[in-house]
Amino acid sequence: MAVISTQYQAVVGLAGHVDHGKTALIEALTGMLTARPHEQQLGMTQDLGFAHFQDDHGNTIGVVDVPGHERYLRNMVAGVWHLNVLLLVVAADEGWMPMTTSHLDVAHAMGIEDIVVCINKRDKVNAEQLAEIEDQVLEQVMERSGLLPEIVTVSALKKDNIEALRQLLIDTVQVNIARHKIIAPVNNDDNTVVESATDPLMYIDRVFVVNGIGTVLTGTLAQGQLAIGDKVRCHPSNLVGTVRSIQAYHQQLTSVSATCRVAVNVKGVGRKDIGRGHLITGINQPMTLRDQCIVRLTKTATKLKVKKQRQVEVAMGTWHGTARLSYIPNTELARLVFEKPIPLLFGQRLAMIQKGGSGLQHGAEVVWTDYIFGYQKRRLYDVLDNLPQQLQPESQRQMLLVLQGYFECHDVDFKPTEQQTFIAPFCFDNQWLADMSQQLETLLSAGISMASAELCSRLRINDAVIELVMQRLKLQQKVHLSYGKWCVGQGDNEDDLPQDALDILHQIRQFGKAGLELNKVKIVGGKKWLRQLSHQKYITALDENIYFDMGVYLDLVKAVIADHQPHDRITMTDIKDRTDLSRKYSIPLANRMEKDGWVKRDDDERIILKAWH
């Protein structure tokens, strides 16, 4: 095959049954021993081990050694959550084992598409037995995953055929990288700046403190780039830290790109604040923390006959915990409810393991994380159940367009299609936008003015979306904002007022019937803005010190006039009772109404001059 000339990095994971020679194989392949001293004494890997080797062009390929014993299946999941290639190891003298099945099932459930099978210890069997093992392995992998694996036979202890394995891994990695188009400049220790198309994403598998350096986080950088000086956010703690140093494969770097094993020294994050299973992202990367989600089941254990609610262990990235699993009838969907909120991403792969056991019950991918209103459930389930088999970021956008007519997008390079309109930060389906605009105009044409919050509640639409659509209609001179409410047609728009005036108006509205008293509240800008707001009839002054929002004032006038007709008489006690105002406010209100021509004073009574209409 053609060699990829652009620099790249990749990660290969080794999986397989305990004592099938994974650790010895890594040592033969890389010259590095991944087993810790106590693991060497036990003769089994308990947690993740790491090594690396390079191809003939200096590209680094990381190697993750995952535990083979069933007790450490959750650690195994942490090792395969984001790999370019899985190297499945089978001992020639023992053949396919139950944990080989579990590891293959988990890897396939986590979305790994490229599998190389290494039959180790070939020196312990004859040619006929080796051929039988190859047939067995091929049949098992194809039956359980539908994938056709490359197979190579070696003897790790005798260093036999290791070079063929190394080249096969390099070839498979390059095919994987070319298919996913994830080639990117890496290992930039020459102070050059490299732009990354995506935000960084790294699940943490280890955290430790180095004297004189601080907190160090290790994991696999699955996407994007990290550089010294970058701000990163830790989830679920929401803490922000600064990248102070980067190490990858025993080299100090100024920046590094995915996919790569990396150790990052982060300033501003303490050892107690972060741990295994936590997630590192870019400072501004949108991230959802939820205690439940909807997943699409991608793989189900054949022995799982009855689909009933159950407790499961969920492994996702390097995180694992318990959740309640509920199946959604007549779909391939299920709901997971976690014990506490965790970071969730659209399309994120996860594995569900029998609680307290080692069998894979389901592989799944996250397809919905938001709250679901009862009225939208059936339509939502239909849309989610018909998502494309291969999920991409665009899949989520198309799903949201079908479901709600818009989606939020912060991608600076995003370009809408001819059927879409982009009004930052939302992209709208043109037909939905036209229909919604018409619906809003019709609603307001009934003569009822509504605030944005009322429109959101009535139409069940995001408040930020309503605001954008209404501003668009305002620019088209189809609506205007008056007294905090949208009205159909042209008119003065209060949101065009200077910001200082808007702040004062908002402050007065917060006081409501209590009114704003100048001797109690300091107004920035003094009486200048009060005079302007009064002149434009956004507020009214009951006297020199008491100001009401015009909408509140008119509601009080309506309460006083009620069903009275001209020439009817009303007492101050009536005014006080009808408005529920104290005498301190009811008298200034009556005086203001007299100035505005609603009433005329006659001793202790007020004569109604005009009816409310």
From TrEMBL:
Boundaries of every Tr-type G domain copy: 7-177
Subcellular compartments: Cytoplasm
Pfam family, one: GTP_EFTU_D2
Cellular-component GO terms for this entry: cytoplasm
GO molecular function: GTP binding; GTPase activity; RNA binding; translation elongation factor activity
SUPFAM superfamilies associated with the record: P-loop containing nucleoside triphosphate hydrolases, Translation proteins, Winged helix' DNA-binding domain
Gene Ontology annotations of biological process type: selenocysteine incorporation
Keyword GTP-binding: yes
Xref: InterPro entries: EF-Tu_GTPase (IPR050055), EFTu-like_2 (IPR004161), P-loop_NTPase (IPR027417), SelB_WHD4 (IPR015191), Small_GTP-bd (IPR005225), T_Tr_GTP-bd_dom (IPR000795), Transl_B-barrel_sf (IPR009000), Transl_elong_SelB (IPR004535)
Major location category of this protein: cytoplasm
Key words, A-Z: Cytoplasm, Elongation factor, GTP-binding, Nucleotide-binding, Protein biosynthesis
Record's protein name: Selenocysteine-specific elongation factor
UniProt source species: Photobacterium iliopiscarium
